[in-house]
Automatic annotation (TrEMBL):
InterPro entries: AMP-bd_C_sf (IPR045851), AMP-dep_Lig_C (IPR028154), AMP-dep_synth/lig_dom (IPR000873), ANL_N_sf (IPR042099). GO terms for molecular function: ligase activity. This is Phenylacetate--CoA ligase family protein. Residues 357-446 form the AMP-dependent ligase C-terminal domain. Gene3D superfamilies: 3.30.300.30, N-terminal domain of ligase-like (3.40.50.12780). PANTHER family: BLR5969 PROTEIN (PTHR43845). Keywords: Ligase.
Length: 454
């Protein structure tokens, strides 16, 4: 198995304490920079009655209140539009003329935010990290990569310069072009690798024989990189995709284009390895999702990830509440021996449901359901008749039964699934059975909810 390393080579020769000291040095420099260059952050520090020079360590810094969340980011954007005519926010810490790339979040929880706004040095950092990730998967100069995400002002667009930086040719087919076009260009260009969501990867498994008369395995990919959904962390989904494509699938994440993390070559999933601890404090800063109080960082801890840029020129994030609930692993990776931190995404705080006082994440339900494949397909929707998070029991879950299952056996299967959910997730749902293929899979992120409310 290939050994995973940090992107910045010098970190590979440092102890954990030395890496933390290096982070602290960069943090102090970043705080001074934003204090001097951003009216937004200068006001935040002044409101908290503290000057950046008074903060001496990461632990001191983690005692500060949350400085930004999505709502504040949107307000910051609105103010910068009104005052200065640009959408990058009052937290922009350089001239708008220095911005070389901007991309937004999906906007699924509100107005899109220009979180992925990069100056040249920011783009160079992320490009170096993306190239490092490709090289780990043995995708190098001269190779071709089928890039199937929404193109334009979208977060994943920030990865394309990194692909080019690696000397790899991106075959960028906008996911909105449709399944036929994606498969057509895959046949024409014969890529060595591909990037897409897990939902699209599974969709192509089903559609390729019908549309091109070949399986996805006959595309002969050497590596597949998936992002945007909790899927590869589910053993049954990982195995299904890897078996179909005949190559390793790498789960990756690049939150706010500040850090990069990806999974290793292990057959088992051990989380995404954070290879850029000098770019962002992620995941060294976790808080309780409800109280926003800092949590002790130890192996297996679960909390809300807080973003803090350590080397960002354009729109640095300082103590930004992400809404991402993650589990952090501090021990050496049992698969590849990586000594840095690893993360598994648990879910989004705004996806969390409360059923009879129990906090329930859709990803936890999906993991249990996938244990019953092939008796189920793994596709599911949680039916919400009222706005979350509180759900009037029972929670209703639609799920597809397997292709060859006898419908007379569904009652027995349903009892087994309910028993598993009761003991593993602490809730017993009402199950509505659906025929295979009737819960449509998205070309991007497949929705978790069926919302029947305004």
């Amino acid at each position: 198995m290939k050994k995973m390393r940090f992107v910045t080579d010098s970190l590979n020769y440092m102890s954990h304490d030395e890496i933390v000291q290096h982070q602290e040095t960069k943090l102090l420099k970043q705080m001074k920079y934003v204090y001097n260059n951003s009216e937004f952050y200068r006001e935040k520090f002044n409101e908290n009655g503290v000057h950046p020079q008074e903060i001496r360590s990461i632990e001191d810094f983690r005692k500060l209140p949350i400085m930004m969340d999505k709502d504040q980011e949107r307000k910051s954007q609105q103010e910068s539009m009104e005052r200065y005519g640009h959408p990058f926010g009052m937290h922009l810490s350089c001239s708008p003329d220095d911005v070389v790339l901007t991309a937004t979040t999906s906007g699924t929880t509100g107005v899109p935010t220009f979180t992925y706004t990069l100056a040249q040095s920011d783009q160079d950092n992320i490009s170096t990290a993306v190239a490092h990730m490709l090289e780990y998967g043995r995708i190098t100069a001269g190779d071709r990569l089928l890039f199937n995400h929404a193109l334009g002002v979208y977060a994943t667009s920030a990865a394309i310069p990194g692909i080019r930086h690696a000397g790899v040719l991106p075959i960028d087919v906008d996911v909105r072009a449709g399944t036929s076009e994606i498969l057509r260009y895959a046949q024409l260009t014969k890529p060595n690798a591909a990037m897409m969501t897990p939902s699209l990867a599974e969709h192509l498994i089903q559609k390729a024989p019908e549309l091109i008369g070949k399986t996805v395995g006959e595309l002969n990919l050497s590596a597949l990189y998936t992002v945007g959904e909790i899927a590869i962390g589910i053993p049954e989904v990982k195995k299904k995709i890897e078996d179909a494509y005949g190559c390793r699938v790498y789960d990756w994440i690049a939150p706010t284009a500040g850090t990069v993390a990806f999974s290793c070559d292990s057959d088992d999933y051990h989380g995404m390895h954070c290879v850029t601890p000098d770019f962002d404090l992620y995941p060294y800063d976790l808080v309780d999702p409800d109280t926003k109080q800092a949590l002790e960082i130890k192996d297996g801890v679960i909390g809300e990830a807080i973003y803090t840029s350590l080397d960002r020129k354009a729109v640095p994030m300082l103590r930004m509440a992400s809404g991402d609930i993650v589990q952090v692993f501090t021990n050496e990776c049992p698969g590849c021996g990586f000594k840095g931190y690893r993360v598994k995404v648990v879910g989004r705080s705004d996806d969390m449901l409360i059923v009879k006082g129990v906090n329930v994440y859709p990803s936890a339900i999906k993991k249990v359901i996938n244990n019953f494949t092939p008796h189920v397909t793994g596709e599911m929707r949680i039916v919400l008749n009222d706005a979350p998070p509180r759900v009037t029991p029972p929670l209703v879950v639609k799920m597809e039964h397997g292709l060859n299952i006898d419908t007379n056996d569904l009652q027995n299967l349903e009892e087994k699934i309910k028993y598993a959910l009761k003991h593993q997730v602490r809730m017993t749902p009402e199950i509505i059975w659906c025929a295979p293929g009737t819960l449509e899979k998205s070309m991007g992120k497949t929705p978790l909810f069926e919302k029947n409310y305004n």
